[in-house]
Amino acid sequence: MNFTAQDIAEFLNGEVDGDGSVAVNSVSRIEEGKPGTLSFLANPKYEHFLYTTQSSIVLVNKTFKAEHEIATTLIRVEDAYQSLASLLEMYEQSKPQKIGIEEPSYISKSAKLGEKIYIGAFAYIGSNVKLGDNVKIYPHVYVGDNVVIGDNTTLNSGVKIYENCNIGADCIFHSGVVIGGDGFGFAPSSANDYKKVPQVGNVVIEDHVEIGANTCVDRATMGSTIIRKGVKLDNLIQVAHNVEIDENTVIASQTGIAGSAKIGKNCMIGGQVGIVGHLSVADEVKIAAQSGIGRTIKKEGTVLQGSPAFDYAPYQKSYVLFKNLPKMREQLFDLEKRLKNLEEE
């Protein structure tokens, strides 16, 4: 399907700078642009590609000022990156949508199914499951007994939802996600081994949550592990039992959050971060990649780095010293040698 620059500008409330009749039918990165495609420029370090790109249309911020002549048509918008997201969302919605129940699949007679749902082959839908309207369940998905799934939620192939979990509306779970597996609960016994503590709680995931491939969210020992509205989890994340992650927090790959930790709203957590259990992280905290959080963070908006983590600015200063330790060691030995020579003289 072709869209002209004028069509796109009207959809995005943008302004055409160039030929409004030029049309595109696909997207491309600005450095790999081809005729008939649309690209975007949000990061200034990619600006030099704008002057050579073959893309027919490029989204730019309204504040952008060109330093050289530009051959392509520009669409000026408030936020080029957000506008691209809106266009891609529209493109996804324009694709044919799967509806219906494929065979073979198992659906319990007690399950309640909404309108216009899709259930792929080899899916399993347990007893008393409730599926909202427009839910999409792709092949090889397991949905355990008493699970509730809200409208417009998508479970991609291989997702596993254990019994009694509640999933909100407009969620997306990617392949390999496991929701509601047992929390890591074992009690040391007098026989020098470990007795399993039954995990009898569940997982509650609110609306507009997206969870990346092979991420696990464990069920609570008692009560609920809770993922609040708008949270985005990357691939390969471990969320332990009774953890609570508040609204609109984003967490990058390979982060692990230990049991009963509470993460605030609008936090940004980098990759490979480790968070100790039974602590709290305030709202709007930013944690750099590979940091270790071993204490409660009470101040909102704190920026942290390191393991154990501390404030970002002092960490950067400390890291400069750390890098120079070998040189400083040699200087210290040299000073000791000179001092010894002076004393001998």
From TrEMBL:
<dbReference type="InterPro" id="IPR020573">
    <property type="entry name" value="UDP_GlcNAc_AcTrfase_non-rep"/>
</dbReference>
<protein>
    <recommendedName>
        <fullName>UDP-3-O-acylglucosamine N-acyltransferase</fullName>
        <ecNumber>2.3.1.191</ecNumber>
    </recommendedName>
</protein>
<feature type="domain" description="UDP-3-O-[3-hydroxymyristoyl] glucosamine N-acyltransferase non-repeat region">
    <location>
        <begin position="22"/>
        <end position="89"/>
    </location>
</feature>
<keyword id="KW-0443">Lipid metabolism</keyword>
<dbReference type="GO" id="GO:0009245">
    <property type="term" value="P:lipid A biosynthetic process"/>
</dbReference>
<dbReference type="GO" id="GO:0103118">
    <property type="term" value="F:UDP-3-O-[(3R)-3-hydroxyacyl]-glucosamine N-acyltransferase activity"/>
</dbReference>
<keyword id="KW-0677">Repeat</keyword>
<dbReference type="InterPro" id="IPR011004">
    <property type="entry name" value="Trimer_LpxA-like_sf"/>
</dbReference>
<dbReference type="Pfam" id="PF04613">
    <property type="entry name" value="LpxD"/>
</dbReference>
<dbReference type="Pfam" id="PF00132">
    <property type="entry name" value="Hexapep"/>
</dbReference>
<comment type="function">
    <text>Catalyzes the N-acylation of UDP-3-O-acylglucosamine using 3-hydroxyacyl-ACP as the acyl donor. Is involved in the biosynthesis of lipid A, a phosphorylated glycolipid that anchors the lipopolysaccharide to the outer membrane of the cell.</text>
</comment>
<dbReference type="GO" id="GO:0016020">
    <property type="term" value="C:membrane"/>
</dbReference>
<dbReference type="InterPro" id="IPR001451">
    <property type="entry name" value="Hexapep"/>
</dbReference>
<dbReference type="GO" id="GO:0016410">
    <property type="term" value="F:N-acyltransferase activity"/>
</dbReference>
<keyword id="KW-0808">Transferase</keyword>
<feature type="active site" description="Proton acceptor">
    <location>
        <position position="241"/>
    </location>
</feature>
<dbReference type="Pfam" id="PF14602">
    <property type="entry name" value="Hexapep_2"/>
</dbReference>
<comment type="similarity">
    <text>Belongs to the transferase hexapeptide repeat family. LpxD subfamily.</text>
</comment>
<dbReference type="InterPro" id="IPR018357">
    <property type="entry name" value="Hexapep_transf_CS"/>
</dbReference>
<keyword id="KW-0012">Acyltransferase</keyword>
<comment type="pathway">
    <text>Bacterial outer membrane biogenesis; LPS lipid A biosynthesis.</text>
</comment>
<comment type="subunit">
    <text>Homotrimer.</text>
</comment>
<dbReference type="InterPro" id="IPR007691">
    <property type="entry name" value="LpxD"/>
</dbReference>
<keyword id="KW-0441">Lipid A biosynthesis</keyword>
<keyword id="KW-0444">Lipid biosynthesis</keyword>
